[in-house]
Amino acid sequence: MGARRASEDTGRRIGRRALIVGGAVAATGTAVLARDELARLWWRVPGIEKPREQGAVDFAGARWVSASDANWRRADRPDDFGIDMVIVHVTQGSFDSAVRAFQDPGHKAATHYIVGQDGRVTQMIRELDVAYHAGNRDYNERSVGIEHEGFVDRPQDLTDEMYEASARLTARICARYDIPVDREHIIGHVEVPGTDHTDPGPHWDWDRYLKLVRRARTTLRA
């Protein structure tokens, strides 16, 4: 009951905001504002059917490779589960080994995205759906998970290309769901309650990463 009321309240807030945005656009005649706002708002309106075209990605430039169905569950986020968090992981292996693991039904885990050391981005689960990546059901339902190729004890694995590509991805996710760019909402796997993981590890530069995400987020508004 409480969840249903929360969903209805969210819908009313989105509806009011859409009207306000529409009025502002009409008054200013700014077509760019209309496109940007509506592109973000429609995704969160309860009852709107989300697209599920074969091979579609949520982040432009990402390559689609399907994870095993055993490593995620179908949902209709953010209608049924609000998204308010990005969780950062490190693979403890190569890019290709992470892809193989997420395609393995016996692995029982996968993230939405993998970012390589060369900056390439592969999406394996739609943001609509719940990926089994955090080791905590509540956190799985409310987050998008991003793996990064490398090992937690090898700072050289965390390349400039990786940081920059991941920051652009996280900025887009934060824009889509109005997630604040801060350490309360962008966290490491190690910070998930109940987890036994240590990633992204001591060499992950959070100050640098958040600065890059904020810069990319500002560019999206421009």
Automatic annotation (TrEMBL):
GO annotations under biological process? cell wall organization; peptidoglycan catabolic process; peptidoglycan turnover
A molecular function (GO) held by this record is: N-acetylmuramoyl-L-alanine amidase activity
Q: Which superkingdom does the taxonomy of this entry point to?
A: Bacteria
- Catalyzed reactions: Hydrolyzes the link between N-acetylmuramoyl residues and L-amino acid residues in certain cell-wall glycopeptides
SMART domains named among the record's database cross-references: Ami_2 (SM00644)
Protein's recorded name: N-acetylmuramoyl-L-alanine amidase
Might you give the EC number(s) for this enzyme?
3.5.1.28
Pfam families, per database record: Amidase_2
| Keywords attached to this entry | Cell wall biogenesis/degradation, Hydrolase
Query: Top enzyme class of this protein?
Result: hydrolase
Domain (N-acetylmuramoyl-L-alanine amidase): residue spans on this chain: 72-201
Organism classification: Bacteria, Bacillati, Actinomycetota, Actinomycetes, Kitasatosporales
